[in-house]
Amino acid sequence: MLLHQTTEYNSHGELNDCNFECQTDWDRLEQWNSPRFFQTHLPLMYLPTKHVENGYKIIYLNRNPKDRAVSNFHFMHKKGVPVGSWNDFFDNFVLNDSFYGGWFSFTKEFEKAVSQKRNNILPITFENLTTASIPTIRELATFLGVSADDRYIHDIADKCSFTNMKNNKTDVPSTINSGKTVIWRKGIIGDWKNLFTVAQNEKFDQMYEQEMKGCDVQFTYNA
Fold first, then answer.
1. Which range marks the domain in which residue 48 is found?
2. What CATH number does the domain containing 38 carry?
3. Are residues 12 and 4 in contact, defined by beta-carbon separation less than 8 angstroms?
C-alpha cells in the first residue's frame, strides 16, 4: 500500500504466487514494474547477493519464537502436514528447529546486521505491528521514503488490521490458501500459553538463553 500510495488491497496478482524462494519463472519477475517488492522466509545469507551488497532495502519482520512455534504448528496441521500432536511437534520441530536454517540462526544473523547500523535493514516485530501499528507504519513509510500523513497512516492501519486482513483474501497466495483460511488464525500475542506446558516453557527458556547469548533482541510474549 505504501509503495503504491493506496489503501486498496493488492489485486494485480504479483503477490498471488508463492514466496520468493518458491518462484520458478524468473523472466516474469524481471518484467515486474519498479518499485518491486518480494516476500520471503529466507535467511539473510540466502538473499540475492547483489540486493544485499548494493544496499537495497530489506524489511526484517520477526515474531516471538513461542507464538511463532504455535502458529507454525497450526499452519502445518491445516496444510495437512503430518506433524503429530503438539508434544510431538515441540520435540521434533521446536527443540530441533530446521525451517530455513532455524529461527535462532535466522534471528541472530539479522540482528547482527542490524547492530552493524546497516541503514538498508528495518527491523519490525509482529508484536509492534499489533500493539503499536501507527508508529510502526510511520517508521516503515520513512524507511521506504514515501510520504504519508496521519490520516493515510491511520487508514492503512485500519485496512491492515488482523480482522480486516482475515476477512479479505485478495492478498493470499492461491498456492498457499487453496480455498482454506490457513494464513490467519488468531493474530494475538501470548497464544503460546495455550499449548506450552510448564516443563516445555522452562526447557525452551533454557535453550533460548543458551542460543541467544550475546544477542540483545527483545520480544513481547504477553499482550
1. 20-211
2. 3.40.50.300
3. no
The answer to whether 131 touches 190, Cβ cutoff 8 Å, is no
Listed in sequence order, the residues at least 6 apart from 43 whose beta carbon sits closer than 8 Å to its beta carbon are 100, 101, 105, 106, 109, 110
What 50-58 contacts at long range (C-beta under 8 Å, 24+ apart), as own/partner pairs, is: 55/118, 55/119, 55/120, 56/120, 57/120, 57/121, 57/122, 57/143, 57/144, 58/120, 58/121, 58/122
Domain annotation covers residue 182: yes
Active site residues: 41
Helix (H, G, I), strand (E, B) or coil at 217: coil
Residue with cell 511437534: 89
The reply to whether 124 falls in a domain is: yes
Query: What global pTM score does this model have?
Result: 0.84
CA distance 127 to 108: 18
Per the structure, how many domains does the chain have?
1
pLDDT of residue 1: 80
Asked if the structure places residue 6 within a domain, the reply is no
Q: Is 4 domain-assigned?
A: no
Q: 90 in helix, strand or coil?
A: helix
Q: Write the pLDDT tens digit of every residue in 18-48.
A: 577 777 777 877 777 777 778 888 899 999 8
